[in-house]
Amino acid sequence: MIHNLSNSDTILSQYLMEMRDKVIQKDPLRFRNNMMRVGEIMAYEISKQLPFKKIKVETPLGIAVSSVLAEQPVLATILRAGIPFYQGFLNFFDKAPSAFVTAYRNHINGNEFNINVEYVSTPPIDNKILILCDPMLATGNSIILSYKKLLTHGMPKEVHIASIISARAGIDDVSQNIDHPKLNIWTAAIDEELDENYYIVPGLGDAGDLAFGKKE
Predict the structure, then answer these.
(1) What is the three-class DSSP state of 113?
(2) b/e for 13-38, b at 16 or more Cβ within 10 A?
(3) pLDDT average per 10 residues of sequence, the chain (216 residues)
(4) Backbone CA torsion sign across 27, 29, 34, 35
């Protein structure tokens, strides 16, 4: 199931506009904060589909019945661009264990590249709810390969893929290549094009560079 949060006008649209604006995005602190804010909003939306249980809480004046998460999801992100986005999820799922994957484009010739996945650090994910977040879902290859690498540590019972901006082609590839009966794709916006370098158009540029500075 695909959840496009831009289908409704909310404060999310404001943060997304600021991230896209080529002048405003020159402020890396603001850019990182907006990534985190989008992560928080998306965490809240995803929480509506997670299992809850009732517990009794003693207040100074009596007993209240409250709903709490029945279990903690496992949060996973792809380094380095995903860190501020992931932090937004962690702010809301503050007791969740976390997994980290390194995945990057290795350019071969011109516009041709492979995705290298070199490192995975993860808690057990077998029979867990997995939330894998990466700010830009362009071709979908990074998400697909990172997910498959995580599968070497167990099979989650539910998968949520979260991105800020997604290309239509990337969503299609993820849907076709992640074979899971409970797969949900969450995004703040869907853009229709990829350029010759496989960057999302209009997109916002390189999220990792905007958040942390240009890399060599």
Answers:
(1) strand
(2) eebbebbbeeeebeeeeebbbbbbbb
(3) 95 98 97 98 98 98 98 94 96 97 65 66 95 95 90 95 97 95 97 90 94 87
(4) positive
- 54 burial (CB, 10 Å; 0-12 / 13-18 / 19+) is exposed
The residue length of the chain stands at 216
Nearest partner of 198 among 113, 104, 106, judged by Cα = 113
Amino acid letter at 178?
A: I
The predicted structure's pLDDT at residue 112: 55
Residue 111: which of 214, 189, 197 has the closest Cα? Answer: 197
Domains: count for the chain: 1
Closest CA to 204 of 155, 108, 107, 137: 137
Task: Tell me 109's DSSP state.
Answer: E
Structure tokens at 91: 């702010």
At position 163, the amino acid (one-letter code) is: S
Q: What is the span of the domain harbouring residue 73?
A: 2-212
Burial 85-117 (b: 16+ CB within 10 A, else e): bbbbbbebbeebebbbbebbeeeeeeeebebeb
CATH number at residue 127: 3.40.50.2020
Q: How far is Cα 165 from Cα 8, in angstroms, rounded to an integer?
A: 15
Exposed, middle or buried: residue 197 (CB in 10 Å: 0-12, 13-18, 19+)?
exposed
The span from the CA of 46 to the CA of 41, in Å, is: 9
What the block records as the tokens of 174 is 């993820």
Report yes or no on whether pTM surpasses 0.85.
yes
